Amino acid sequence: MTPIYQYCPRCAAPLHSENHGGFERRVCPAPGCGFIWWNNPTPVVAAVVEYQGKIVLARNAQWTTPFFALITGYLERNEDPAEAVLREVKEELDLDADHATLIGHYTFERMNQLIIAYQVEATGTITLNEELAEYKLIEPERARYWPAATGLALRDYLRTQGFDPQPIAPRRADD
């Protein structure tokens, strides 16, 4: 979750909410300060990785629940998103890919991120880095999507391939 600033990081005055540019912003009222907390989303790249005819889903080592998702990573300063996604696939899976095809962009409100999703075909031998705990390979026709940014990217990609993916069934409280 993105923290909400309560005090100005420049002068320590209490911030207040104000409509600024059509959006609710946290603004410093102190004379001469002028700080505005824009709270813009962080750009993140995501990859639907095709490997040996299957889709790679991975579980982050920090996740306590057994949830598998796409390969993701932060966009570095002055980095082209298509190059960033190829870098992330190499860093996290040690797979090679030389082309990324844009699927689309998706908001991930819970983390205040803008997900820029690509499809890549990768080769090599999967070797997980320290960020990932495990992976699985899914046949595209059996893939299910989750109702959040990267899940919607997977859904949209599968639809372009002629599949009719179904959502993952929500967990019941007694599961």
- Strand tally, please? 11
Low-confidence stretches: none
User: N-to-C SSE series?
Assistant: EEEEEEHEEEEHE
The radius of gyration over CA amounts to: 19 Å
Alpha-carbon distance between the two ends: 26 Å
Question: How many helical elements?
Answer: 2
Helical content class: 10-25%
Which percent band covers the strand fraction? Answer: 35-45%
| Major sheet | 6 strands, mixed
The computed structural class is mainly beta
**Assembly category:** single chain
Shape category: elongated
Mean pLDDT, rounded to whole units? 93
Description of the structure:
14% of the residues lie in helices and 36% in strands. It is mainly β and 175 residues long. Strand 7 and strand 8 (113-122) form a beta hairpin.
